[in-house]
Amino acid sequence: MLVCALLYGAHYDIHTAQVGIEGTPEGQRMARVYDHATKYPNEVEYLYSFVQIITACTASFAHGANDVGNAVGVWAVMYAAWSTGKAAGAKAPVPLWQIAVMALTICIGFITYGYNIMKVMGNKITYHSPSRGSSMELGAAITVLIFSQYSLPVSTSMCITGATVGVGLCNGTLKAVNWKRVFLLVFSWFMTVPIAGLIGGCLMGILLNTPHFGKK
Q: For helices 179-208 and 156-169, what crossing angle results, to 10°?
């Protein structure tokens, strides 16, 4: 059961999940959103399917360039403080093994739980196709790489959400975007900061006030 739970995301069929919502209120809402999107000939979309492979690789590189740095920066400082008793400096080099561990951890997260993000970003915001997907990926990748060049941490999920909404608006109507889902995404972004801060503060308060043995 443990193995099945860990590998559930690797075998989850996103396309079947999309078909499964047909006839439901959510499926009817997305059908109305899709109806307002311009449909291009299959020959055009087939051509862009090759382009999307390149943009997907570019987006993957950009994601690693920024999100791995976001995660490893915090961990590197904590590890340096634990191992040496001194916090690492702003320009201190990060060992390669720490970067590898963070990259591996992010990949495990994608494999085990990433299908939920795929369901929302791929099915519940606007109509997708290879031509649209390549534009979304390239737009998000360029944005992330520009910010990475200036050592500014950004959220790749926010970038791809903005790119998805932007491509949806290119249909020429606001009805081509599922604004209810966009609102929930933006709301979750704002809520994660106070919620994570509250949980972190409570845990730190518990740890600081636990019984401990030390010199008086």
A: 170
